[in-house]
Amino acid sequence: MAALSLSMRTTALVGFFLALPLAAQTPSPRRALPAPPAVAVPCDGADTTCDAPSMRREFRGVWVASVSNIDWPSKPGLPTADQKAELLALLDRAQTEHLNAVILQVRPAADALYKSSIEPWSEYLTGTQGRAPVPAWDPLAFAVEEAHRRGLELHAWFNPYRARHPSAKGALSKRHIARTSPALVKKYGTQLWMDPGESAVRARTMRVVLDVVTRYDIDGVHLDDYFYPYKEKTTRGTTEFLDDRSWKKYVKAKGKLSRDDWRRENVNVLVHQLYDKIHLAKPWVKFGISPFGIWRPGNPEQIKGFDAYEQLYADSKLWLENGWVDYFTPQLYWPIGKVEQSYPVLLQWWAEQNAVGRHLWPGLYTSRVTAGTPAGNGLTPSNPWVADEIVAQVDSTRANPRATGVVHFSMKAFLTDQGSVASRLAERVYRDVALVPASPWMAKGLPSLPAVRLKKNAASGGLTMTMTMPPKQVARWFLVQTRTGGVWGSRLVATCACDEEIVPNGEGMLPDRLVVTAIDRAGQASGTVRLAVRR
User: What is the pTM of this model?
Assistant: First the structure.
């Protein structure tokens, strides 16, 4: 094996080796000479044929809801093999559609779709709350590994306060918080809700989230828009959330805030502490929230609608202004042409509140698309959405320089191609793969160049490439870009993979150019290793 020291396009000196096959013994003159082996040499700095195309940086996320079995699993109590097959099909579709992040709901209602010592197994998974899947498996560990294998980020989605959803049918487990600590849980209309005013509730949510952060290799923690519950209505009017116990404790401790401001502060404290403690545990794990898309009516002036600040006690503007999130995903579930909740107008307003430059990735109501045709700008339940509305919203987001991606609700729209929305997105805006935008505030410095080893693979007729990082450095991905027949292709390789196979294409051609870049866990890119592959 011959070892060659290669130079890079960067000033850093990094050694790496190409393992090349030794020449065979001199063949008999009567036998045909074998084809010469492929060899790789470093590209000259001035060789522009080794310049791989730049990758678009854009977040393309999708929510995968487990509550009410909206997206996964398709129904409770499926055999483990079927649950795995559905999850793999979902991840395959996300990869095929050129999405790059899956936001998987793992705690819909003080329960768990993963192995937890704190909360019971979810009935949406096994059919009975507290019953473990048989055969045993851990869906979150499986999802993380398989998502990374496909070049997808995996974010764990938690509901911080809901304790029981109206769609739940079975009995509560003995381990459920409503059974173990009933004073912390209030019945509110058709739901059970953990009281945000109780410090023990905040501590439990913190413990649940940090348990997942420390045990799983997730890329992000995600909260949705449910803080204090949406108001329940009866024939007598709107009912109030029964938090007298925690409010009286606050007043007795000489608290000075009004009741509404106290409720908002309860949520603020949770958000701020989650941000700090997640990054203390793992600085590279992103924290994101997807609040209701309108902060307060009149912001900006033309906007009307639900007041989340007043009704949900969610001061989401404060969280963004203070940088208590790494990404912010306001649910902008209205069409572009609806003046009172205009998508681009709200997006621009949120961009103006983003004082510290966090990621702004709005949520789109992609599953609202049907096969019908709208009759004008105002889209209503009797006037359905079409796929081009979502395409136009992606285009509108791209036109705003302070927004760098979107999140689609929900995966079902892609699995069923409802109203041809997945097809239209693939044709119009998601033709190529994209990298998740970098989060430089989450890292110290840029990653070093990877070391790359190549060797001939006799079985496949291609090359086996092994990529490693220097000691004490970790990459999330290796970006591998190859040029075959004049056409460049790109793929992300998880760093847990030991080798990457580069095989001939359908015409028996190997790449003639190969470029490798390390992407760290904050999404930052190293310099490039550029190789020319010759015979």
Answer: 0.91
